[in-house]
Write a structure and sequence with these properties.
The protein has a domain at about 180-310: Jelly Rolls (Sandwich), CATH 2.60.120. The protein is built from 1 helix and 18 strands. The protein starts with a strand and ends with a strand. The strands form 6 sheets. A 6-stranded antiparallel beta sheet has the order 10-11-18-13-14-15, with no helix packed on it. The chain has a 3-stranded mixed beta sheet with strand order 7-8-9, with no helix packed on it. The chain has one helix at about 115-125, and strands spanning about 1-5, 10, 40-45, 45, 130-135, 140, 145-150, 155-160, 170, 180-185, 195-205, 210-215, 220-235, 245-255, 260-270, 275-280, 285-290, 295-310.
């Protein structure tokens, strides 16, 4: 049967037409020719315009989730069919060498090495610490008993951290060790300009010459020696408060291994009871010698200043 309506011809039973009442099922795909499908209700029971909520965890059409993997050392796309939630947490894991990143350098960021962590931890010190690298160069350390800075009074202590009164206080624990050793590069024929200071102490109980200081010499070297000596009675027959003060200077020459003391000068002498201090030679050693009184104990303190030039 053929029907005509509005200029269109409809052939009864022809399945090439879509019935508006929806009673004819499709037998194949529907090609919309790039045209839109609008004003749609549900599609297979789904509201397309708000379907996203169906895929969240716990909804009717949820996307499967899984536990995130441990951090790795190599990039990988992955093969799992599950997704991780936005607030997921990775365990850190361990890559080759025990770290996930390379160690930081001065040129690139990275993880801190165990060695550098030890150095960082060692920086924390006490007030007044002057920090430095240890003998192995592996850690920052401190030695307040021997190197200390008084920040309140701006004073540096070397060999001491108490009783600082000068801008630099130097304390040597061993008598006779060099307290000050100054060098200036001269660029001359005979090497650096050299200046040394040592300090000494001795006790006498009689009037026998006693060595207060001994300074070894070098062959073919000329020395200017200055000895500053003070003493005071500690016990005995001399009057309480007996004392002496002396400044002695000399030129000492070691020529070919023979030491001679020349031009001994008595710059200053001040004493109560005829005590004495002098400079002499013993072999190739320069000596500062002191002489007390019988049956009396004296304590002697000496500071020796030495300047030299080796001419060969």
């Amino acid at each position: 049967m053929v029907l005509r309506r509005g200029g269109l011809t409809f052939i009864a039973g022809n399945t090439q037409y879509i019935l508006v009442n929806g009673t004819r099922a499709m037998s194949g795909d529907l090609d919309m020719g790039t045209n839109d499908v609008t004003n749609v209700g549900l599609v297979d029971g789904v509201d397309v315009s708000s379907h996203a909520s169906r895929h969240v965890p716990g909804a009717v059409d949820a996307i499967a989730t899984g536990v995130p993997v441990t951090l790795g050392a190599v990039l990988a796309e992955g093969t799992a069919a599950t997704l991780a939630r936005a607030d997921h947490v990775h365990t850190h894991g361990s890559a080759g060498g025990g770290t996930q990143h390379t160690v930081a350098t001065t040129l690139s960021a990275g993880f801190m090495s165990a060695t550098d962590k030890s150095k960082l931890d060692a920086i924390a010190g006490t007030a007044g610490s002057v920090t430095f690298y240890n003998a192995g160069g592996t850690n920052v350390t401190e030695d307040n008993a021997n190197l200390f800075y008084d920040d309140t009074n701006n004073r540096l202590g070397v060999g001491t951290n108490t009783g600082l009164t000068g801008k630099v206080d130097v304390k040597e624990a061993t008598l006779g060790n060099q307290l000050v050793n100054l060098h200036t590069t001269s660029g001359g024929a005979f090497g650096d300009v050299d200046y040394k200071v040592t300090q000494h102490r001795v006790t006498t109980t009689n009037n026998t010459d006693t060595t207060l200081a001994t300074i070894a010499t070098t062959t073919d070297t000329i020395y200017l020696v200055e000895a500053r000596v003070v003493c005071a009675r500690t016990a005995g027959t001399d009057a309480a408060g007996s004392s002496g003060c002396y400044i002695r200077t000399a030129r000492a020459t070691n020529i070919g291994g023979t030491l001679v003391i020349a031009n001994l000068q008595t710059t200053f002498t001040g004493d109560d009871v005829g005590l004495d201090a002098t400079i002499d030679a013993s072999g190739t050693d320069i000596r500062v010698r002191v002489n007390g009184n019988a049956t009396t104990t004296y304590e002697w303190h000496g500071t020796v200043i030495l300047q030299k030039i080796t001419y060969v």
